[in-house]
Amino acid sequence: MATNTNIQWYPGHMTKARRMMEESIKLIDIVVELVDARVPYSSKNPDIDALANGKARLILLNKSDLADPEQTKAWKKWYEAQGFFAATINSRNTGDARGVTNLIQEACKEIIERNARKGIKNRPIRAMIVGIPNVGKSTFINSFAGRAAAKTGNTPGVTKGKQWIRLNKNVELLDTPGILWPKFEDQEVGKKLAYIGSIRDEVLDASDLAYSFLEYLREEYPENLIKRYALTELTPTIAMMDQIGKARGCLKAGAEIDYDKTAAVILDDFRKGALGRITLERPSEGL
Prior knowledge:
Layout: H1 12-24, E1 30-36, H2 47-51, E2 56-62, H3 69-81, E3 85-88, H4 94-98, H5 100-107, H6 109-117, E4 125-130, H7 137-145, E5 163-166, E6 171-175, H8 187-195, H9 206-220, H10 222-229, H11 237-247, H12 259-271
Parallel strand pairs: 1-2, 1-4, 2-3, 4-6
Antiparallel strand pairs: 5-6
Helix pairs in contact: 9-11, 9-12, 11-12
């Protein structure tokens, strides 16, 4: 089975979204970037660093309930060492989301104090919420606000334009559409984003993607595979796909394995957490 999936995905609406963010940045005190805790490096948009230059920064490692907890702790420390404020959250947990208010105010302490010296009182902190598609921004905002303030969905591209959301007397949020960057220099980054569903499945070879994903799990999380798919042993990857396909009834006429359906089962299991808590990259990998 070929595994040379080449991933490039930058629809035209992302160009418009980036331009809108560039125009809005002058209104902002802090840029809050959500990353996926399962791929905390690959899901961070490198273009945001240039866009947010000179602004306070907060990294939220979202979907931490789906990620390897030890690796999530390591990534939080790694980002803090890079000079970011950082927190681990599950955006569906209202308590996690609302706890971010204190971090935003801590990160903007100098701005608040400067406003106070100028006699400016009760001006809310303005935060821009950014993140790649499907990282959970809208769910986070709704949990943060305690109401359905933003549209949500489990596919990339639900948020189409910017919207200001007044959370409380202390914080206003500017929601933005999820954007990727024009070219993945490292194809491994593209694959990891495809694993978590930040790139639409229609543009990918699903069977190749699932094959490379299983290759990684065989090395790093073999127990998760054995438990989820009731395997007696770790066979070569293609044989494992055959086993999973047969067990899940992913068959064509003549009992031939339907690899696309098998791939969909495997990737869906990962995305919804059925394979256990998994992180696909380490701070120690020399990033």
